[in-house]
């Protein structure tokens, strides 16, 4: 396994699998924050300490396999080009923070890209594990197993009263962030999402855009995650999140049915216009592309558009991001050049569906 594998393929292997409720839920993620005991946390650590942690991971885990997570690749972030870093962020394999503060940072990524471990981000270790569709319980189970495997060789910073100790106080306790990526076009079209977000926030959950904190909900994709990590068990946190997600799934399906019943022709027109724009445009900005892809994915889910893969939204949302476009072109591109290439790639991808 090489870096080239991770940066040249827009869709991760695990995304090809079908998951429960995957007409609305794109993915489920469990992230666990951990730190080495008796070592300064990354924000206060000396460079020598952080380099020792990098060397430990490279020695102990590079090209190792745990269960189905094969051939763990150790990737030194400082050795990456700006484009390669951006691609890994766009694929959610590393965070924007890790990419920006990369002097003593690395990632360990499994061959199927289902597991990635960020090293020396805000914490020494941040384990991420993804599953398609709504599979939070399974993601948590597998996350625990992978965490236990790491802990066989690592003494974690842990307090009996407070739980896992982390750089950010909001992560203390379980050290866990559970999140679900959802495609909610009908709730957005009907503007119901605007009143739902404040209600969700009051339940101790947070609604963010596609790339997490501070990002935009491109293509009507929203990330729902827990805010509270202290005072609740991991199972309770996942249960609370899953309950809200199931309500959102029901609300989105109801909104789709109402739109078809009350404004069917308008909805069809919106979907097919977007399909036409994607098929024939020669210039395409990223925001417009995301919106059109969202409408086409809705059309696929409603059975209006045939012979186009449901994975097209997942794939093209990533493939048409700036980092991937420049990786594909093998050079830096101006904004105008990216818009032209984006349109071209979308046209070619749609031709493959026939």
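^ structure tokens above, recovered residues below v
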């Amino acid at each position: 396994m090489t870096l080239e594998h991770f940066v040249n393929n827009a869709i991760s292997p695990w995304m090809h699998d079908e998951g429960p409720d995957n007409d609305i839920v794109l993915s489920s993620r469990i992230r666990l924050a951990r730190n080495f005991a008796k070592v300064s946390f990354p924000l206060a650590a000396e460079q020598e300490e952080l380099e020792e942690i990098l060397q430990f991971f490279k020695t102990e885990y590079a090209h190792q396999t745990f269960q189905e997570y094969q051939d763990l690749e150790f990737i030194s972030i400082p050795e990456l080009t700006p484009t390669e870093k951006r691609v890994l962020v766009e694929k959610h394999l590393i965070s924007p923070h890790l990419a920006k503060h990369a002097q003593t940072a690395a990632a360990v990524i499994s061959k199927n890209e289902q597991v990635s471990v960020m090293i020396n981000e805000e914490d020494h270790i941040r384990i991420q594990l993804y599953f398609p569709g709504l599979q939070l319980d399974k993601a948590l189970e597998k996350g625990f197993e992978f965490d236990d495997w790491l802990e066989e060789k690592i003494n974690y910073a842990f307090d009996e009263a407070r739980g896992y100790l982390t750089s950010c106080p909001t992560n203390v306790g379980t050290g866990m962030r559970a999140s679900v990526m959802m495609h909610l076009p009908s709730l957005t079209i009907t503007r119901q999402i605007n009143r739902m977000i404040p209600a969700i926030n009051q339940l101790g959950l947070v609604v963010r855009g596609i790339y997490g904190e501070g990002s935009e909900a491109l293509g009507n994709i929203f990330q729902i995650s827990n805010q509270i990590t202290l005072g609740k068990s991991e199972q309770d946190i996942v249960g609370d999140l899953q309950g809200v997600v199931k309500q959102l799934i029901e609300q989105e399906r109801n909104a789709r049915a109402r739109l078809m019943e009350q404004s069917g022709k308008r909805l069809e027109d919106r979907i097919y216009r977007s399909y036409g724009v994607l098929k024939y445009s020669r210039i395409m900005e990223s925001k417009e592309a995301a919106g059109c892809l969202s409408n086409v994915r809705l059309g696929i889910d409603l059975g209006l558009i045939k012979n186009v893969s449901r994975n097209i939204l997942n794939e093209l949302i990533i493939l048409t991001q700036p980092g991937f476009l420049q990786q594909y072109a093998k050079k830096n591109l101006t904004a105008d050049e990216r818009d032209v290439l984006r349109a071209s790639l979308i046209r070619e991808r749609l031709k493959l569906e026939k």
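The mean pLDDT is 91.
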